[in-house]
């Protein structure tokens, strides 16, 4: 049965990484039939900066940034292919020229449309180079344009999948054991052939879409870490790898801000109970983490999530009245209208507290709007700690010496909000 692999930008960030990728695929006892790939390294960021320069009319900056993108990719081609680089160089040059033409053609269109016609070229460039390298390594590879494979509506920058049309295109792929199909993550296209993008974490979602349509045996996402952890190892000095999570538990962690797997990715896999494995491309012998329908291990290890640069808005009725359902409906309606998500909601008889990501124009607009009808107390520079499967002793130890500004708890999850200056840079999970 079909296996789908997804490789992110770190795994193909330069020529050395691409060589390593070829070696990895060659060493595996069973090669995948479909490989989904992101743009190289920080290319998407560079393309977004290019887009900004184009839309702001900064012609000199635009040309400099386009030249840098061209140079970075051609340098990679030269490092990989040397004297045999000409055919690949020509394909890369053609894609860069097409990118430039699209910027000129769509600069006066809406930003989401312009974005989708240009930023996905990072994936097209990366897969063009990698496909040629895998062929040179003796790994038969068929390059596939995802804009003709994953069919969506025209909701630019957050396109919705046309599952029927996509399944029809995917079933037409020539999948076999003798070669792998290499395609792009993040991008799709309408039935009319207009490029779209799938939103943040779109490349993982692309792999899940293809796996769903193919009825794949499994999906593997390759990262530069040996699996998923119960906390960010950069912030918690004793974080541990999670060997197994259910789909539901992974969605809970992602909802609360953990950098694990986006819920959009899990939906298509859960529908067909396709397991998802997270493995390290730097350590093939590392066991990684498994996500599937089995819930037996979900509460074995507490998980910890930090959200920093938080703002707490505490809203009070001006007439000393209750914060009843009508007023809560009004406040939360304004939150939705502002396009914001509350990371924590804490309520009392005469207050409703909302913890939000800080430093945004939308937050300022919401605070001003609420202030017209309510008394609003605002606190900035806060840190939100979310703990899955906590106990009282654990929460007490984590909160020791810190004032709790707001909190929420149910049977499985506890959230507490603290002043950031009272929080350590590196946390230690109490034993």
From TrEMBL:
<feature type="domain" description="Aspartate/glutamate/uridylate kinase">
    <location>
        <begin position="1"/>
        <end position="280"/>
    </location>
</feature>
<keyword id="KW-0547">Nucleotide-binding</keyword>
<comment type="pathway">
    <text>Amino-acid biosynthesis; L-lysine biosynthesis via DAP pathway; (S)-tetrahydrodipicolinate from L-aspartate: step 1/4.</text>
</comment>
<dbReference type="GO" id="GO:0009089">
    <property type="term" value="P:lysine biosynthetic process via diaminopimelate"/>
</dbReference>
<dbReference type="InterPro" id="IPR036393">
    <property type="entry name" value="AceGlu_kinase-like_sf"/>
</dbReference>
<keyword id="KW-0028">Amino-acid biosynthesis</keyword>
<comment type="pathway">
    <text>Amino-acid biosynthesis; L-threonine biosynthesis; L-threonine from L-aspartate: step 1/5.</text>
</comment>
<protein>
    <recommendedName>
        <fullName>Aspartokinase</fullName>
        <ecNumber>2.7.2.4</ecNumber>
    </recommendedName>
</protein>
<dbReference type="InterPro" id="IPR001341">
    <property type="entry name" value="Asp_kinase"/>
</dbReference>
<dbReference type="GO" id="GO:0005829">
    <property type="term" value="C:cytosol"/>
</dbReference>
<comment type="similarity">
    <text>Belongs to the aspartokinase family.</text>
</comment>
<dbReference type="Pfam" id="PF00696">
    <property type="entry name" value="AA_kinase"/>
</dbReference>
<dbReference type="GO" id="GO:0005524">
    <property type="term" value="F:ATP binding"/>
</dbReference>
<dbReference type="InterPro" id="IPR001048">
    <property type="entry name" value="Asp/Glu/Uridylate_kinase"/>
</dbReference>
<keyword id="KW-0418">Kinase</keyword>
<dbReference type="GO" id="GO:0004072">
    <property type="term" value="F:aspartate kinase activity"/>
</dbReference>
<dbReference type="GO" id="GO:0009090">
    <property type="term" value="P:homoserine biosynthetic process"/>
</dbReference>
<keyword id="KW-0808">Transferase</keyword>
<keyword id="KW-0067">ATP-binding</keyword>
<dbReference type="GO" id="GO:0009088">
    <property type="term" value="P:threonine biosynthetic process"/>
</dbReference>
<dbReference type="InterPro" id="IPR042199">
    <property type="entry name" value="AsparK_Bifunc_asparK/hSer_DH"/>
</dbReference>
